[in-house]
Write a structure and sequence with these properties.
The protein is mostly beta strands and about 110 residues long. It is built from no helices and seven strands. The strands form two sheets. The chain has a four-stranded antiparallel sheet with strand order 1-2-3-4, with no helix packed on it. Strands 5-6-7 form a three-stranded antiparallel sheet, with no helix packed on it.
C-alpha cells in the first residue's frame, strides 16, 4: 500500500505490480518497512572512511520518522540527527535504531 507515501515514489496511492526506483536514497544496504512508514540505510564514503546515512519516509503524525516534524513524507528524507546507523526496527507508532555506539530511539 502507498496510501501514506511509504513507497517513496512521491505519490499517495498504490502501484500494484509496478516496481519503481526510489531516487533519493543511493547505495542502500538495508531496508525496513513497517505498517505505514519505510526506512533505508545507505553506505556513504567520506574520503577513506565509510559511514552510514539513515533515510525515512511515509506516515509521520507521531514523529516516528525522526525528522523533527509530524508531516507526511512522500519520498526519503535523510535523518541528520543520527550518525552511523547500522540497524533499524519500526512498528506502528515508533522506531528504534542501533548506531555504531549503541541503541537509540527516533
Amino acid at each position: 500500500s502507498g496510501s501514506y507515501g511509504q513507497l517513496g515514489n512521491g505519490k499517495v496511492y498504490d502501484l500494484p505490480f509496478h516496481p519503481c526506483i526510489v531516487q533519493q536514497a543511493r547505495n542502500v544496504i538495508k531496508v525496513e518497512a513497517s505498517t505505514r512508514s519505510s526506512y533505508a540505510i545507505s553506505k556513504i564514503k567520506k574520503g577513506n572512511q565509510e559511514s552510514f546515512q539513515l533515510f525515512s519516509w511515509g506516515y509521520n503524525c507521531n514523529g516516528e520518522l525522526g525528522l523533527d516534524d509530524q508531516e507526511l513524507k512522500l519520498q526519503p528524507y535523510p535523518i541528520n540527527l543520527v550518525d552511523d546507523c547500522i540497524k533499524i526496527a519500526s512498528d506502528y507508532h515508533h522506531s528504534i535504531i542501533i548506531t555504531g555506539s549503541g541503541l537509540s530511539s527516533l
